[in-house]
Structure formats: C-alpha cells, structure tokens
Design brief:
The mean pLDDT is 84. By secondary structure, the chain is α+β, with helices and mostly antiparallel strands. The termini are far apart. It is globular, with a radius of gyration of 20 Å. 44% of the residues lie in helices and 16% in strands. The protein folds into 2 domains: 4-164, Jelly Rolls, CATH 2.60.120; 176-283, Homeodomain-like (Arc Repressor Mutant, subunit A), CATH 1.10.10. 29% of the residues are buried.
C-alpha cells in the first residue's frame, strides 16, 4: 500500500516538534505514512509492533526508535496499559543536517544521524535509563526542550547498544520528485498560512497546472489542498490561543482566516469545539 505523505507542523519559533500521546489520545497519523523529517520515538511500556518499510518487529515492554526521513512507517504506540505514553520528537532535516554540522563538537551526533537512515532500535537498558528524560518534554519550554533534545541525542550517540533494522534502506519505490513537490508545498503553506494562499501560484512553483496539482495533492495526502490549508491554519490558531491575552479576532487574522463564521466552522471541524468554547475551557 502506498504511504500517505504526512505534513509535520513545526511551530515558527522552534526547529522541531514534540508530541506526547496517552492511552486515550493516539497519534493522528496511525496509518501507513511517510514524511521528510527525522523521528525519535519513545514508547514507555506495553507490547506492540514496529512496522517500518518492509520490516515488522515486535516489542514487549516499550520501545525506543530513531529513523531518518522519508522512510514509510505506521504508528508505533499501543493501548496495552492505561499509563502508557508515546513521545514523538520530529526534527526538520535542516536542523540535523545543516545546523548541527557547524559544531565540530557534535561529531558523534552527526554519525548517529547518518545511521538513523538504517533505522535504529535501542536496547532495553537505554530505553529504561532515558525514559524520564523523554517524559520531561511535557513540562519544558522551547529552550529547555532544545537542551533536552541535544542531551538525548548525545546520550544515544555514545557507545550504547542498538540494532539496525536495515543494512541500507532504498527509497527507489518512492519517487523523489513527488516527495520534493510535497516538501515544497508544505514549506509554501508554512511560510504563507497567514496570507492569501494561491493554488495557481503553488502549482506553478512546483511545475504543475492547478488541476494537476489538486489531483496530485489528493493522491499523495488523501486530503484536498483547501482542507489541508484550513487544518494547518487551525493548528496555528491553537498555538496562538496558548499565548497569553489573545482574542478570537486576533487569532483568526493571525492564523490566516478573515471570516468569523468560517473560522468558527473550521475550528470546530478540526478541534471538536468552537473558538469561544476552546477559550472558555482554557480559562475555566
């Protein structure tokens, strides 16, 4: 089955994304999917399966996995226990391949990043030892999260036991030009979500006609482009609502909407409640 291309919505003031999923709050991309970002996944406990590329591997008491970008996979979590948590850290390739390389002190981390393209499965001792560090992401701000991420990558780059899932992973079955077009589309929306989004402009940017682009986007993501943009803007609106003293009208305009009723409908569609209900719950 062809994997769905997932967009990873990294906030403007960060270079990576951290999400924590509980037994009742599962990852939204549980199906077969692919994205260009690197991914570090910690599953606290329970048993499940790691479905990555052509391989399937079972785990019995949680898991710790590091995989490079553009490797198709399914969600790694499980619902075995009520106290289970899955922490997913996703890094833009620029963060690992461009920014880190300017520091000569991070040679071991660079090597770890390169090995992640083979998919690294870390042993039980490492999983247990670093468990509390992954759980601390929930309480950290952006700067603290960055320091914690670098600490974890440093620990994993040391002489710790791990298994590689692949001798080498071939991406020949996934067309590079299609992945590149999706990356360019996601970047375009990330840069312009608060402005007018033009289908004609993005289609021309990636070398397609508007109709061909819409068909291409739906085939690759199983979403319409307009639906994707609205969902992206709603996610940005949620980020803005988390800031102090933000009004509904301010958030509406800053996230790219300009009609209050349309904003309310789209917000409820993707968040299950209206903006006013969201704010009421926030301050109650």
């Amino acid at each position: 089955m062809r994997p769905m291309v997932e967009t990873v919505n990294v906030a403007a003031n960060t270079s990576f994304k951290v999400e924590t999923y509980s037994n009742s709050h599962s990852c939204g991309s549980a199906g077969w999917h692919i994205h260009p970002e690197y991914e570090l996944v910690f599953v606290r406990n329970g048993s499940g399966s790691l479905r990555i590329g052509t391989e399937k591997r079972s785990y019995a008491n949680g898991a710790l996995v590091f995989l490079g970008g553009n490797i198709p996979h399914a969600d790694f979590g499980n619902k075995d226990r009520e106290d289970n948590l899955e922490v997913v850290v996703q890094f833009k390739k620029e963060f690992l391949e461009e920014k880190i390389k300017v520091f000569p002190e991070l040679t071991k981390i660079k090597k770890l990043v390169e090995k992640s393209k083979q998919v690294l499965l870390f042993g039980e001792e490492v999983h247990h030892r670093l468990g509390n560090d992954f759980l601390q992401f929930r309480k950290l701000d952006e700067q603290g999260s960055l320091v914690k991420l670098l600490y974890l990558l440093d620990e994993l780059s040391k002489n710790v036991p791990y298994e590689t899932l692949f001798d080498s992973f071939t991406r020949s079955t996934y067309k590079r030009d299609e992945i590149k077009r999706l990356e360019d589309t996601f970047e375009y929306v990330n840069e312009r979500y608060d402005q007018n989004i033009s289908v004609s402009e993005i289609a021309n940017r990636i070398g397609l006609t508007p109709n061909s682009f819409c068909r291409f986007f739906k085939r690759m993501t199983q979403k319409t482009f307009i639906g994707f943009v609205n969902e992206f803007r709603v996610e940005k609106a949620v980020e803005l609502f988390r800031e102090e003293n933000t009004s509904i009208s301010e958030v509406m305009y800053r996230s790219g909407f300009n009609d209050p009723s349309y904003f309310a409908r789209q917000f409820k569609k993707y968040q299950g409640q209206t903006p006013s209900e969201y704010l009421k719950g926030k301050y109650s």
